[in-house]
Amino acid sequence: MKRGFTLLELLVVIIIIGVLATLGIQQYGRMIERARGAEARMILGQIRSTAAAYRLERGSCTGFDNTAAGIGTGADQIPSACRATHYFSYTVSSTANGFTATATRCTTGGKTPNGSSPLTLTLTTDFNAGTDTWGGTGGY
Predict the structure, then answer these.
(1) Over the stretch 54-78, which tens digit does the pLDDT of each residue have?
(2) Element (DSSP H or E) covering residue 34
(3) What is the reported pTM?
(4) What Å distances lie between residue 14 and 3, 11, 18, 27, CA to CA?
(5) What DSSP state is assigned to residue 85?
(6) Domain containing 33: what range?
(7) Domain for residue 1, yes or no?
């Protein structure tokens, strides 16, 4: 009596392993992209701190813009456009009570690998209400 596996049994095992590997690779890619979102969360937090100082100094967030937030094209600034040192570009707009800062995932020109689509992460802060609201399209 011979012992061993039939060709059919081996094919079924190989197919199952292939399906599991495909699912694992996709999940791994999502987790890596979420980790890249840590850059955006950190920089948006820095922008929030800068906005709070701006509001304390002036009594309002009116006029808090990219320049006041430290966003620009200089090497020591938060990038306003995609560049090889960051995964995201940033922009900010303000109201009297707060601001909205947006991080947009670079699809070209950013730190490699670039994203496949320009996903976003936004932070909207209302200092009068004492609220921070996170949103966006990237699931970061």
Answers:
(1) 999 999 999 999 999 999 999 999 9
(2) helix 7-58
(3) 0.81
(4) 20, 5, 6, 20
(5) T
(6) 10-136
(7) no
